[in-house]
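Duplicate of earlier report; Prophage antirepressor input re-posted below.
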Amino acid sequence: MSKNYTAEEFAKKFSISKGHVYELIKRGQISKVPNLGKTIRIPSRELEKMKATSNNLLYLPERVEAVKTSLGTIRKIKGKDLYVLVDVVKALGVNNSYRIIRTIGNDFVAKLTTDEARDLGLFANQTGILLISSTGIKLYSSKCRNRVVVENFIKELIVNAQAPKGLTAPIEVKEKEIGNTQSALQIFEGQEVEIIEVTGEILFELYSTGMALGQIKKNSEGRLYPRKERIDGNIISAGIKPRVHNGHKYLTEPMLYDFMLEAKTQKCRPFRNWVTNDVLPSIRKTGAYTSRNVEIKSEYRVLDDTYLNFSADTVKLMIKDLRNSNLGMLEKVRMNNRSIAKLESLLEGGI
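Output:
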């Protein structure tokens, strides 16, 4: 007798939400066991059908085009220089998407949410689907071993698709604005971290942050999930009450530092450095000092009431970060002063 699955069990198999499973049933894309009233049970044959479907190239022809190349078919968003990254990964024989992202960085990669992917007819799990620009593929070709193969692949993409002309600048990670809220995806060592800004306050999604800190588990199929029991335990031990926004839990900046102090994983220090040196300065455009062509940015905002929420240990960490940042600034100023002196001596010499 074949096994039947609940909507929740079915959702876990594909890392999608239970609500998405109900939506697929409503559309008729998944069949349920009949005559059970309001009880939902999904037969095992639908599991196999779903696996086959997720491996096929699904899309809406009016919004997505299929570009044929000698290495396989690549889906492209019509009217945009954006290709489905998983198609590119399969065509080039790369291990996974994050190998390309680690090589080229985040500037040439964008992300569609599950709902946005669904509107294009693209299959996506609960984390969404990644896209890459042709410029990103070109950059990857300049850094990979199989450069000739990738360059030929790019030529086929350009010839066979009517990509917008003159698009060479990095694409921006798509921000979704809801009222006074902006959200953007950041990637730390191959792990996605959702960061949102609500009325000027930066918030970090709890479980993606926990995964970035190494609190993860893997199922039999190799899929990674947040180790929620450990993450929740750290939150309770640290006395943190996360903010709730659109049904998701988020950490404020003070909460984030307290969470890292409690988690005590090997990734806490590099993650903290990434947040304070890369993420926050790129989001905050205040506290900048410009002298000639030298720009020095403060790692933290001017002291205000929000600092009253920090614990003593957090303040000590911030002081340490600021001192390290100051050392880097001083070294940069010294190097620029040496360069200025050399240039001025050239002018005095009659260059």
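Confidence is low (pLDDT under 50) at residues 163-181, 286-308.

Merging into the original ticket.
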